[in-house]
Amino acid sequence: MRLMVITDPVLLAGRDAVGVCRAAAQGGATMIQVRWKDGSPDEVLELTRALVAALPVPVLVNDRADTPLAALRRHLPAGFLLGISVGTAEEAERAAALPADYWSVGPCFATPTKRDAGPPLGPEGFAALARRAPEGVPVIGIGGITAPNASSVMRAGAAGVAVIGAVLGAADPEAAARAVDVAARV
Length: 186
Hints:
By secondary structure, the chain is an alpha/beta fold. The protein has helices at 9-12, 17-26, 41-54, 69-73, 89-95, 122-130, 147-155, 165-168, 173-184, and strands at residues 3-6, 31-34, 59-61, 83-86, 102-105, 139-142, 160-163.
């Protein structure tokens, strides 16, 4: 979970999602997450299938379960990962009782890609929420993560970081992913 790259149709700006994500994986992305809130279920499924077929890393899908996490778990095959987003102490309290495989905590920094993300936590705020995760549940930092600030989130206790703009907004997604990956290893 060291480097999750999240897709965004706006930042892809017409570029081929599979090609951009393949470059990100070559640069060190360890997971790809499909985030396409306005995409139809068929469009999301088509993109997900294409990514799974083309990439050597796991592909996750964001925000497409209309069922509560606890009810969903018993219907999924072994190895299927369920994550939950946490941005406040109240959300952390609720999430701690759920069967999530990982937590995404943020926004760590200001982010233009998610308007409703809430105020930036900074590394200290991230650390405070990450400590509330159940033992053994990895926590990744999300929101405004870039190569220059990824190491501060890792030092605050993150198992990894999730990025959107830092890679998808770059002219060279492979080099951008490599820069974040190097920073996340510190």
